[in-house]
């Protein structure tokens, strides 16, 4: 069968690249057994493709139906270069599959001593017992067992057996995504099961629900009169929001266009938006490192979006429109982009918008630079953990930013580097603001 | 120039009636789609029916080449017509007077037939350039004399004339302009453009269309009439309908009559239109207290007698808003003017509570809401959003800009689930207090508890 899994298996890097260039393709999707492209490439030892996939941001710890990660497969099949690549991308070295086996179990069982040693150097524990009570050391034979034992002792590992605990119910794993998620554009409204109403906003009502056994968020758009023209525009615009090809962009999975109901569907994110993580109290601790990580994620996502042809004109970058994934990746939520017929003449969060965007039409301004202004506000928000202009109503904020020069003050306590970055990004002259391509390396450096 | 460009209709078909040289709009029946119109125009353009005015060098007078039954058809865009009209005016009143046909002179048609002959080509070109000159030249050197028949009065016949100096009154001009614009707005969908009230309305054709548009009724009259008698009959029918709608007695109003309108009596036409605009609550603001001096000439025992009469065309109006079901505000205005002040005061307090947040203050409801700016800002303050400044005019000057602002504010209201206001945007812009109060009261009742 000619598909992405096939190309990854046979090592057709060219086809894989072409496939990845289509924004509608989700590189984290899984086949019938939950193998992602990365799984296949790692299993078959196609290091070029593994490299390509990792570069594009494929999930390194995705699991298949047997809870194997790509590292399990690479270790079991003796692809040392791939094992090293995966380890460099922070693959979870002690992850156990449904049998309780870690990658080290497989390396030992198949006698790949180099790989076993590499794993050990990256913190693999030799005493994890699988379902049958065997540790990697039990699996190793002859010389390898001896060397591993010595290395483990050297690294100060406790050699006492760690008993197998079934943790699959904890839901910590990130399975490769159900392939059906990115396959369907138009979704039949009858296939949707909507359960809890999460929120009601001016743009529509948001429900949590199930679609094809996936947890989804469905937003029923608030449209006064759903004319055939609106329905047609909707049909034309929503496919542009299905961007599966970047880890920091949360795609719209699909839409139901069944007037009078227009429904936008995307993946359910347990942690909610960056706004709720920052300001509404959650279990996530946002320290400086985490804040920088979020900032970097957002910058990468925006840089990717700016690199595309303009998708949809109305994505307003602010903390409500960024979602936080289970693995604490910040993702730009395409479901929050505004359709051309939505909220005409109403801006609910002007605090994040540049003065020029509040005054002029989008077609008359440099919207990339305007996004950069919004990013500066986000940086300020991440640094201070405060809501910008929290004490004023949107109309007050908008009028004052647009006409009276209201600006955020930089408070003491923000690191000088970040202060400088905020200042640069918030330059009054749109032409002098940096691009996201320029900001990414700066943030990368700051993070280290 | 700008005004011409902004006209909604690009192509208008003009005709000239049998008795009249003046251009007047042709009414295309409703079935005519845009395409059909274009096609029609193209067809006419292809068939060389357009007759050029040809200047005879010998005597310098206008000569018109002959067409069947001397009816003349002309086609062009509005702009062309306008400009050519401007330049070629004044136009001859009647074709009878000016057709000085020289038998020896070959008509344009004859020349068409001889186009093939080489020796005639030059002649044809000459004639063409003459024709072009006749159209483009800045007016006729000899203005044709107005036919004396028009002045001839029968015994006891009366004729009204507006004093020439009355036309200098800017208020009269404004009134006519407002009415013309209103009619043109109403009839834009019918592709009818009125340029002159007396000349375009006298035959009842436009009045019929106007009636049908205003009442959504279809009148049982012939679509097109050419004969004078037919026009009179049609006009009578149309006026009878109007009188009925206006609630007048069988005799109708003494201010207008079939005869008066058909004889292009501007005063009668203005009276009728003002009455219509008032009755149908046209979304226009009529200039108040417009009056004209009229000379009435009557022939008595072979003598022409004249007297001066002052005709009041408009009065002062306090309600320009649309009529709708009677509500509390009608009662308030009619029966409790003292309470009105209380209502106004509490509405002022309400709007200021919110507008003060952005350093704005309202003192007078009638005038300060008419341009829609405060209304738009108020919506944002009440509903918690900012309105990007490009979506409305922050400092509107033109009437259209104000109407845009008010309609935009209405859109916002509907978007957030407030019932569509009963008032028209134009009423607010025309500073109709009742309409303004209705809208503000709607907001008040929904948001009075919003902090």
UniProtKB/TrEMBL annotation, chain A:
<comment type="similarity">
    <text>Belongs to the protein kinase superfamily. TKL Ser/Thr protein kinase family.</text>
</comment>
<dbReference type="InterPro" id="IPR051681">
    <property type="entry name" value="Ser/Thr_Kinases-Pseudokinases"/>
</dbReference>
<dbReference type="GO" id="GO:0009653">
    <property type="term" value="P:anatomical structure morphogenesis"/>
</dbReference>
<dbReference type="GO" id="GO:0005524">
    <property type="term" value="F:ATP binding"/>
</dbReference>
<dbReference type="InterPro" id="IPR002110">
    <property type="entry name" value="Ankyrin_rpt"/>
</dbReference>
<dbReference type="InterPro" id="IPR011009">
    <property type="entry name" value="Kinase-like_dom_sf"/>
</dbReference>
<feature type="repeat" description="ANK">
    <location>
        <begin position="99"/>
        <end position="131"/>
    </location>
</feature>
<dbReference type="GO" id="GO:0005925">
    <property type="term" value="C:focal adhesion"/>
</dbReference>
<dbReference type="Pfam" id="PF12796">
    <property type="entry name" value="Ank_2"/>
</dbReference>
<keyword id="KW-0963">Cytoplasm</keyword>
<dbReference type="GO" id="GO:0007160">
    <property type="term" value="P:cell-matrix adhesion"/>
</dbReference>
<feature type="domain" description="Protein kinase">
    <location>
        <begin position="192"/>
        <end position="443"/>
    </location>
</feature>
<keyword id="KW-0472">Membrane</keyword>
<dbReference type="GO" id="GO:0005886">
    <property type="term" value="C:plasma membrane"/>
</dbReference>
<protein>
    <recommendedName>
        <fullName>Protein kinase domain-containing protein</fullName>
    </recommendedName>
</protein>
<dbReference type="GO" id="GO:0034446">
    <property type="term" value="P:substrate adhesion-dependent cell spreading"/>
</dbReference>
<keyword id="KW-0677">Repeat</keyword>
<dbReference type="GO" id="GO:0004674">
    <property type="term" value="F:protein serine/threonine kinase activity"/>
</dbReference>
<dbReference type="InterPro" id="IPR001245">
    <property type="entry name" value="Ser-Thr/Tyr_kinase_cat_dom"/>
</dbReference>
<dbReference type="InterPro" id="IPR000719">
    <property type="entry name" value="Prot_kinase_dom"/>
</dbReference>
<dbReference type="Pfam" id="PF07714">
    <property type="entry name" value="PK_Tyr_Ser-Thr"/>
</dbReference>
<dbReference type="GO" id="GO:0007229">
    <property type="term" value="P:integrin-mediated signaling pathway"/>
</dbReference>
TrEMBL record, chain B:
<dbReference type="GO" id="GO:0034446">
    <property type="term" value="P:substrate adhesion-dependent cell spreading"/>
</dbReference>
<dbReference type="GO" id="GO:0071963">
    <property type="term" value="P:establishment or maintenance of cell polarity regulating cell shape"/>
</dbReference>
<dbReference type="GO" id="GO:0030031">
    <property type="term" value="P:cell projection assembly"/>
</dbReference>
<dbReference type="GO" id="GO:0030017">
    <property type="term" value="C:sarcomere"/>
</dbReference>
<feature type="region of interest" description="Disordered">
    <location>
        <begin position="61"/>
        <end position="98"/>
    </location>
</feature>
<dbReference type="GO" id="GO:0015629">
    <property type="term" value="C:actin cytoskeleton"/>
</dbReference>
<keyword id="KW-0677">Repeat</keyword>
<protein>
    <recommendedName>
        <fullName>Calponin-homology (CH) domain-containing protein</fullName>
    </recommendedName>
</protein>
<keyword id="KW-0206">Cytoskeleton</keyword>
<dbReference type="InterPro" id="IPR001715">
    <property type="entry name" value="CH_dom"/>
</dbReference>
<feature type="domain" description="Calponin-homology (CH)">
    <location>
        <begin position="173"/>
        <end position="281"/>
    </location>
</feature>
<keyword id="KW-0963">Cytoplasm</keyword>
<dbReference type="GO" id="GO:0030036">
    <property type="term" value="P:actin cytoskeleton organization"/>
</dbReference>
<dbReference type="InterPro" id="IPR036872">
    <property type="entry name" value="CH_dom_sf"/>
</dbReference>
<keyword id="KW-0130">Cell adhesion</keyword>
<dbReference type="GO" id="GO:0005925">
    <property type="term" value="C:focal adhesion"/>
</dbReference>
<dbReference type="GO" id="GO:0003779">
    <property type="term" value="F:actin binding"/>
</dbReference>
<keyword id="KW-0009">Actin-binding</keyword>
<dbReference type="InterPro" id="IPR028433">
    <property type="entry name" value="Parvin"/>
</dbReference>
<dbReference type="Pfam" id="PF00307">
    <property type="entry name" value="CH"/>
</dbReference>
<feature type="domain" description="Calponin-homology (CH)">
    <location>
        <begin position="341"/>
        <end position="448"/>
    </location>
</feature>
<comment type="similarity">
    <text>Belongs to the parvin family.</text>
</comment>
